[in-house]
Amino acid sequence: MPSVTTQGVVLRYSNYRENDRMLTLLSPSLGKLDVMSRGCRKLSSPLHSVSEMFITGEFVLYQNKDKYQLVSAEAAQNFYDLRLDVDRLTAAVYLCDLCREAAQTAQPQQTLYYLLLRSLAYMDYSAESLTAIVSAFLLSYASALGYTPRMNHCAVCMKKLPEGSARFDISAGGVVCREHSESAENITAGEEEWIRAVIKGGIDEFLRLPVKDAPLGLLRRYVETRLDRPIKSGAMLK
Ligand SMILES: [Zn+2]
Q1: Is the Cβ–Cβ distance between 216 and 135 less than 8 Å?
Q2: Tens digit of pLDDT for each residue in 116-137?
């Protein structure tokens, strides 16, 4: 069987038979892959420590058509501390679920892969606000999928709007003018500025912005409306 070597991160697993696990892997070059990890639930297995959620590193896989089997892996990060705090664990699972939803097999996912690893690292190693980290991920994720919210023109009629227009319509996909604001919700000037700054500066921009302006609830509903389904783990976010 031919083997492939790829960078990857484990988005989830399900136990299989007595000692196996089916891993869902996100690879920057190969997209989303289901990978059988045989015998990994035995403590003595060399695959034991790398067949866990959030493990990131280099994976060697046997490929048989569209089926993959894990041969070996070298973990670069295990993001172990995420498991020690229920809020961080919930947020990390939510981000993984969002990646699983968006990624396809055999389609490169460099941007999603980068965004996920960056966010997991912030959650694991920094004292930054979880609300701000998840908000920055959600907005960058929406942009990566081609759903950047409109923040300068009315999302319905495209009329140029002044900053601080104060109305955001999730279904229309951004800020809206007074005439098109019947199904819109209020957004503070600070939240508007936060969204504009992260769109312009990228995911790390949240570090320079006030945590109170990170619009987590709005961005969650925005992203899940675009995906056309709720992501269950998101409902458990604080
Ligand atoms: Zn309008």
Answers
A1: yes
A2: 999 999 999 999 999 999 999 9
Structural domain including 12 reads 3-80
Please work out, in degrees rounded to the nearest 5, the angle formed at the alpha carbon of residue 141 by the alpha carbons of 103 and 79: 80
Cα 166 to ligand 1 centroid, rounded to whole Å: 13
- Yes or no: say if 21 and 40 are a contact pair by the CB < 8 Å rule: yes
Residue 105 lies in a domain: no
Instruction: State pTM to two decimals.
Output: 0.95
C-alpha 150 – ligand 1 centre gap (Å): 12
Distance of alpha carbon 217 from alpha carbon 237, whole angstroms: 10
pLDDT band at 162 (very low <50, low <70, confident <90, very high): confident
Q: Which of 24, 59, 80 delimits the end of a domain?
A: 80
How far does the centroid of ligand 1 lie from the alpha carbon of residue 175, in Å?
9
Give the distance (Å) from ligand 1 centre to CA of residue 161. Answer: 9
Flag whether 215 is in a domain: yes
